[in-house]
Amino acid sequence: MKSSRKSAKAALISVCLLVLAGCGNRGLPEIKPEVMANKHAVYLVTSGKIKEDQTKISEVLERWHQDNQLVFNWKQNADSWSDEIAKEIEAKPYDYVYVMGDSLLDGAAKQAEAVKKTKFILLQNKPNGSLTNAVPEKADNVQIVEMNQQNIDNQMESWVKLHNKLGDSIIWLTVKDKPIPKEWNISNESDRVVYLDTDDKWLDRVKQQVTKYRPNWVVLYAGADETKSSKLKALNLPLIDTSSSFSAEMKWDAVLDNQLGKMNQEFRPGIQSYTEQEFSQLKFDKN
């Protein structure tokens, strides 16, 4: 079985090199046949929402090929996980499938169940995404890379420092088991923090504090389910929901560079976190 897979991979690599040569890529390194079967083959899928990063991604892929004789197939500007993508992955013995773009991740997670020998690396750029629940617990060929709570808190701290310096007024919404760090609430006024889990009068308290302080920002740090979120949004507040109001400005070239180094390490399925070198900021938006 391993022999047939190596033969198939060698055939894939040969085809990819012919395609690259036909596209005018000159100066490609000569790859000896006996080492071809041991080189990694990668399928990369990127959504149209990261068009501005395509030049940098292309440069990384070319470095992968030039320096490591790694071969790749890159599907760009994919709006959804299509049958075409699924068939291409199933038809060739790819070692890794990398997926960039939150709209593609659910489809990729489902396909990973059918292509067990290929490792899927799903790269989220939406903090607290719902993808985790879509991946079976025993999916040993799937790795999800996401923002962890420490990433979020670090970026939130920078945001808080900026707006405190500007003199902005902030009201915080949270629950008792997730208190607001003291250094964030520099006014030290306890009523600027509204707890959503003390009783059913939480919405009245939010209205009272908004009337009292007329805040520039109302930050929902934790504790709101869909019903509570809807009630808060109906108030037309300058609301920031830290579970959904921001997205990461990713450095996809840095992400891919780090992934290259991991190819020769033991694959670690499950949840992994971005390093702070892999994104420049989390962008917060009013709801």
How are the secondary structure elements laid out?
Layout: H1 2-22, H2 33-36, E1 41-47, H3 54-68, E2 71-78, H4 83-91, E3 96-100, H5 102-112, E4 119-123, E5 142-146, H6 149-165, E6 170-174, E7 193-195, H7 202-213, E8 217-220, H8 226-233, E9 239-241, E10 246-250, H9 252-262, E11 270-273, E12 279-284
Parallel strand pairs: 1-2, 1-3, 3-4, 4-5, 5-11, 6-7, 6-8, 8-9
Antiparallel strand pairs: 10-12
What report would you give on this structure?
The protein has 287 residues and is an alpha/beta fold. The protein has two domains: 35-146, Rossmann fold (3-Layer(aba) Sandwich), CATH 3.40.50; 150-246, 3-Layer(aba) Sandwich (Rossmann fold), CATH 3.40.50. Helices cover 38% and strands 21% of the residues. It contains nine helices and twelve strands. The chain has a six-stranded parallel sheet with strand order 2-1-3-4-5-11, with helices on both faces. Strands 7-6-8-9 form a four-stranded parallel sheet, with helices on one face. Helix 3 (54-68) packs parallel to helix 9 (252-262). It is elongated and about 65 Å long. Residues 13-36 have low confidence and may be disordered.
